[in-house]
Amino acid sequence: MKQFPRWLSRGVARLDYGLVLPLLARLPRWLARPLWILRGCINYAMDWDWRTLSLGHGYVREATQHAMAQLRLQAKEGTLPRRLTLRRFVCMSREEVEAARLTHLDRKTIQARITGLEPLLQARDRQQGVVLMTAHFDSLYVGLAALAEAGLTVNLMATRLTDDAMVPPAISRHFATKAVALNRLLAPGRVMHLEDSMRVFVSALRRGEIVVIACDGPSTSQDRAQPVEFLGARRLMASGPQFLAKAGHAPLALYTCQEGPGGHFTVEVTEPTSLEEGGLQRAYTALERHLLAHPWQWWAADLYRTYVAAEAKGA
């Protein structure tokens, strides 16, 4: 496992997240694109990621390559895992530039085609909240601003993990700046932290609002997770979506946003479906379709090797 001296991690973070990302965010897209590709290639070569810079050792590249090898087999993808992993680092670089660009973004100017908007508007009109499950996949944040511009109240579940003392200050500031920008873009929705209270999310759902929660993490408790068929196995995934659906009496749907040529975005939201009608499984089936079609756009693919098989429960 590659170790990074603390002074190096902090120095790289200060240069990259403190100077390079803000600069790239201000450049025209045509000029920023080759630079974010170069940045992604450097991060791949050095195994740099905000988490590896925080922990002081590299692991994301190896874990991602393992995931890409597995996804490649399921998707019958001909590209080598190493190349898919490189493309993941480039995708992550672009996403971080897009996140830094949120500060200067006017949501009225977003060019997005939204599939599945009407059911969300109908749920809003009858004051029914919706749990929007998502993954760390392609352009996560821009699409949420597009949903807010379409008339929805969108709340994003976030974590205070990036404020930890282990995280270099430049990286913490990057995430804090992103949260401020998202609060402006999502208003009257907002970014809320799971560590503060889960009740605020349940209350938002009961008011007929949307709560967006990442669902590509593993279950932290085998007793609370409902098994789902996902990526070739019956797995115990994060239990947050089903908890919110039950507590908020809300259906579930999957949200993805992908960037196309020229800064045009495609937002896809599946049909909101209750837990009782198989909403959780439907969301993971849709997510699997996206991940197998574009594995390199899953910039949290390193999570794959942490997944728990349902058969292991009670073993």
UniProtKB/TrEMBL annotation:
Entry's localization field: Cell inner membrane
Gene Ontology biological process terms, A to Z: glycolipid biosynthetic process
GO molecular function: acyltransferase activity
Protein name: Lauroyl/myristoyl acyltransferase
UniProt cross-references to InterPro entries, sorted A to Z: LipA_acyltrans
Keyword Plastid on entry: no
PANTHER family noted in UniProt: LIPID A BIOSYNTHESIS LAUROYL ACYLTRANSFERASE (PTHR30606), PHOSPHATIDYLINOSITOL MANNOSIDE ACYLTRANSFERASE (PTHR30606:SF10)
GO cellular component: plasma membrane
Species: Acidovorax soli
Superkingdom in the source lineage: Bacteria
KW Nuclease (keyword) present: no
Main location (coarse class): membrane
Alphabetically ordered keywords of this record: Acyltransferase, Cell inner membrane, Cell membrane, Membrane, Transferase
